[in-house]
Design goal:
With about 400 residues, this protein is of the alpha/beta class. Helices cover about 45% and strands about 10% of the residues. It is globular, with a radius of gyration of 20 Å.
Length: about 400
């Protein structure tokens, strides 16, 4: 007998939120909440979406919009549209070899895929499965030698961009993970509930737990030899994320990385200026999807000031709350050159694998195309403050 988790939606997924609902049904709750949740009371996570919804576009009429273009040049690459699939840790737990499926979807759509340090598939596996090397996301670890080795591995497979995540001095308080016994010191009963949660999703067990092996941290196999338990992984994270990192460490990264360098996690104009002074090629305006410090500005509210401060000096990218092509257009109007989507592709790959991610990107493109036409714009490069009401 099929459980509710295995039943299809009554409609063909047409929006990112459709994929979210299907992912909620198909994934064990602990995994869905890991991807879906934020820090503390999730105020900032909600604000990322609600503040973006409040941004109003300037509708323009009687303009020739028979030609509309979404392609851009970004950090030396040609993109078919200003979208990047962002790094999602543990993604390979959402669908069989999910990082490979998402990377193939990104390649088909002509946009970059970013491999997470804590992906299930290794960067070598992703690179071998595609003809376009992935970008690589790196945390600054206490074990600098291993971080240097990860940069070397990314360089060896041809990664053109290193995305250095800088807003993880410590891990945010993610209460959903605590409730689901993913972190902390869970009781025996909590572990039993975690097991029952998995057992109640036989479709996931068959396709991912059994069919998606090996479920190891591909990029960290030497230091975290198996996925084992959430407690084991949390212990490694706590021991390796380095709260002593400063802007001076950018020079260390530059010693070992000669490609394009982007820092992710900037939410303050002064920090943006420091990043430019440190010589990075781009910044990602981001609050980590509301997963780190709660009660901080949404990306939509922080982006204009940062773009004004450094937009003429470096490449400004934004993430947080982008759920459709209209959101993408709004972010570009607010000052971003491109946007990163994370949860959107995680939900889509959990729902329908590579086909889901491909369709999600097609929906983003179609939404954005309509928005361009109705704002009187011929290209995404024309979007800016004048595009806002």
């Amino acid at each position: 007998m099929r459980t509710s988790a295995d039943r299809p939606l009554n409609v063909q997924p047409a929006t990112v939120r459709d994929y979210r609902e299907l992912a909620r049904r198909r994934l064990p709750r602990q995994l869905f909440d890991y991807a879906d949740g934020g820090a503390y009371e999730e105020t900032t996570m909600r604000a990322n979406e609600s503040d973006l919804e409040k941004v109003l576009l300037r509708q323009r009429v009687m303009r020739d919009v028979s030609v509309r273009e979404q392609s851009i040049e970004l950090l030396g690459q040609e993109l078919s549209m200003p979208v990047i699939l962002g790094p999602v840790g543990l993604a390979g737990m959402f669908a069989p070899r999910a990082e490979v499926q998402a990377a193939r979807a990104a390649e088909a759509a002509g946009v970059p895929f970013t491999e997470s340090t804590v992906s299930i598939c290794s960067i070598e596996e992703v690179a071998e499965a595609t003809s376009v090397p992935p970008w690589f996301q790196l945390y600054v670890m206490r074990d600098r030698a291993y971080a240097e080795k990860l940069m070397a591995r990314a360089r060896e497979v041809g990664s053109p961009v290193l995305m250095l995540t800088i807003d993880l001095a410590v891990v945010g308080a993610r209460h959903r993970d605590t409730r689901n016994a993913m972190v902390g010191n869970p009781s025996t009963w909590a572990k039993v509930r975690r097991g029952l949660d998995i057992a109640s999703h036989p479709g996931w067990v068959k396709s991912v737990a059994l069919g998606g092996k090996p479920l190891t941290f591909g990029n960290l196999a030497e230091v975290v030899p198996g996925a084992r338990t959430p407690e084991d992984f949390k212990g490694w994270v706590d021991s390796q994320f380095d709260p002593s990192v400063t802007w001076d460490d950018i020079a260390w990264v530059r010693e070992h990385w000669k490609g394009k360098l982007v820092v992710k996690g900037v939410l303050d104009s002064e920090d943006a200026r420091r990043a430019v002074d440190a010589g990075v090629d781009g910044i990602v305006v981001s609050n980590h999807g509301g997963r780190q410090l709660d009660a901080v500005p949404s990306t939509a509210s922080a982006l204009p000031g940062i773009a004004e401060a450094v937009g003429s000096q470096t490449t400004v990218i934004a993430d947080g709350g982008v759920r459709n092509g209209l959101d993408m257009v709004k972010m570009l109007a607010l000052g971003a050159r491109a946007v990163i989507v994370g949860r959107a592709w995680a939900w889509a790959v959990a729902a329908e694998g590579q086909a889901g991610v491909e369709n999600m990107l097609k929906v983003l493109r179609a939404d954005a195309d309509v928005a361009l036409a109705l704002t009187g714009s011929n290209s995404v490069t024309e979007l800016g403050p004048d595009s806002l009401a």
